[in-house]
Amino acid sequence: MKTILKKAVIGEKAAGLHDKGIYTFIVDKKANKVEIKNEIERIYGVTVESVNTLRYGGKPKVRYTKTNVLSGRTQAYKKALVRVAEGDFIDVYGNG
Protein backbone atom coordinates (compact mmCIF):
# COMPACT_ATOMS: atom_id res chain seq x y z
CA MET A 1 0.00 0.00 0.00
CA LYS A 2 1.48 3.31 -1.03
CA THR A 3 1.57 6.35 1.21
CA ILE A 4 -0.52 9.11 -0.34
CA LEU A 5 -0.02 11.84 2.28
CA LYS A 6 3.62 12.65 2.92
CA LYS A 7 3.33 15.62 5.31
CA ALA A 8 1.27 18.69 6.13
CA VAL A 9 2.61 22.05 5.02
CA ILE A 10 3.12 24.38 7.98
CA GLY A 11 3.91 27.94 6.99
CA GLU A 12 2.48 31.42 7.05
CA LYS A 13 0.51 31.15 3.82
CA ALA A 14 -0.83 27.70 4.68
CA ALA A 15 -1.77 28.79 8.22
CA GLY A 16 -3.63 31.80 6.84
CA LEU A 17 -5.90 29.45 4.89
CA HIS A 18 -6.86 27.42 7.99
CA ASP A 19 -9.49 30.02 8.95
CA LYS A 20 -11.22 29.36 5.61
CA GLY A 21 -11.13 25.59 6.16
CA ILE A 22 -8.35 24.94 3.62
CA TYR A 23 -5.41 22.71 4.58
CA THR A 24 -2.25 22.07 2.57
CA PHE A 25 -0.46 18.72 2.24
CA ILE A 26 2.51 17.37 0.29
CA VAL A 27 1.22 14.23 -1.46
CA ASP A 28 2.51 11.43 -3.65
CA LYS A 29 3.16 12.59 -7.23
CA LYS A 30 1.01 9.81 -8.69
CA ALA A 31 -2.00 10.30 -6.36
CA ASN A 32 -5.20 11.67 -7.89
CA LYS A 33 -7.83 13.90 -6.27
CA VAL A 34 -10.19 11.04 -5.38
CA GLU A 35 -7.42 9.10 -3.62
CA ILE A 36 -6.34 12.21 -1.71
CA LYS A 37 -9.93 12.94 -0.63
CA ASN A 38 -10.49 9.37 0.59
CA GLU A 39 -7.19 9.33 2.51
CA ILE A 40 -7.91 12.67 4.27
CA GLU A 41 -11.40 11.52 5.25
CA ARG A 42 -10.07 8.18 6.52
CA ILE A 43 -7.17 9.60 8.57
CA TYR A 44 -8.71 12.78 10.00
CA GLY A 45 -12.43 11.87 10.07
CA VAL A 46 -13.60 15.04 8.29
CA THR A 47 -15.79 15.67 5.26
CA VAL A 48 -13.77 16.94 2.28
CA GLU A 49 -15.60 19.33 -0.04
CA SER A 50 -12.90 19.85 -2.67
CA VAL A 51 -9.29 19.04 -3.53
CA ASN A 52 -7.05 21.20 -5.71
CA THR A 53 -3.61 19.93 -6.71
CA LEU A 54 -0.43 21.68 -7.85
CA ARG A 55 2.70 20.11 -9.32
CA TYR A 56 6.03 21.78 -8.61
CA GLY A 57 9.12 21.04 -10.68
CA GLY A 58 12.52 21.07 -9.06
CA LYS A 59 14.49 24.29 -9.21
CA PRO A 60 18.02 24.32 -10.59
CA LYS A 61 20.63 24.89 -7.89
CA VAL A 62 24.35 25.62 -8.22
CA ARG A 63 26.92 25.49 -5.41
CA TYR A 64 30.42 26.86 -5.90
CA THR A 65 33.16 25.11 -3.94
CA LYS A 66 36.94 25.57 -3.90
CA THR A 67 37.56 22.72 -6.29
CA ASN A 68 34.39 22.32 -8.32
CA VAL A 69 31.04 23.72 -9.35
CA LEU A 70 28.24 21.41 -8.26
CA SER A 71 24.94 21.71 -10.08
CA GLY A 72 21.71 19.84 -9.64
CA ARG A 73 18.00 20.23 -8.99
CA THR A 74 15.79 20.23 -5.92
CA GLN A 75 13.09 17.58 -5.54
CA ALA A 76 9.88 17.90 -7.55
CA TYR A 77 6.69 17.46 -5.51
CA LYS A 78 2.91 17.65 -5.62
CA LYS A 79 0.87 19.78 -3.23
CA ALA A 80 -2.84 19.39 -2.43
CA LEU A 81 -5.13 22.13 -1.11
CA VAL A 82 -8.00 20.42 0.72
CA ARG A 83 -11.20 22.27 1.65
CA VAL A 84 -13.13 20.64 4.49
CA ALA A 85 -16.81 21.12 5.36
CA GLU A 86 -17.72 24.06 7.56
CA GLY A 87 -17.30 23.16 11.22
CA ASP A 88 -14.69 20.44 10.55
CA PHE A 89 -11.12 20.93 11.73
CA ILE A 90 -7.79 19.18 11.02
CA ASP A 91 -5.12 19.48 13.72
CA VAL A 92 -1.96 19.69 11.58
CA TYR A 93 0.13 20.92 14.53
CA GLY A 94 -0.49 17.78 16.61
CA ASN A 95 -1.70 19.60 19.73
CA GLY A 96 -4.29 16.91 20.44
UniProtKB/TrEMBL annotation:
The keyword RNA-binding applies. GO terms for cellular component: ribonucleoprotein complex; ribosome. Coiled coil: none annotated. One of the early assembly proteins it binds 23S rRNA. One of the proteins that surrounds the polypeptide exit tunnel on the outside of the ribosome. Forms the main docking site for trigger factor binding to the ribosome. NCBIfam families: PRK05738.2-4 (NF004363). Keywords: Ribonucleoprotein, Ribosomal protein, RNA-binding, rRNA-binding. The lineage of its organism: Bacteria, Pseudomonadati, Bacteroidota, Cytophagia, Cytophagales. It comes from the Bacteria. PANTHER family: 60S RIBOSOMAL PROTEIN L23A. Belongs to the universal ribosomal protein uL23 family. GO terms for molecular function: rRNA binding; structural constituent of ribosome. This is Large ribosomal subunit protein uL23. Part of the 50S ribosomal subunit. Contacts protein L29, and trigger factor when it is bound to the ribosome. One of its GO terms (biological process) is translation. Gene3D superfamilies: 3.30.70.330. The keyword Ribonucleoprotein applies. Pfam families: Ribosomal_L23.
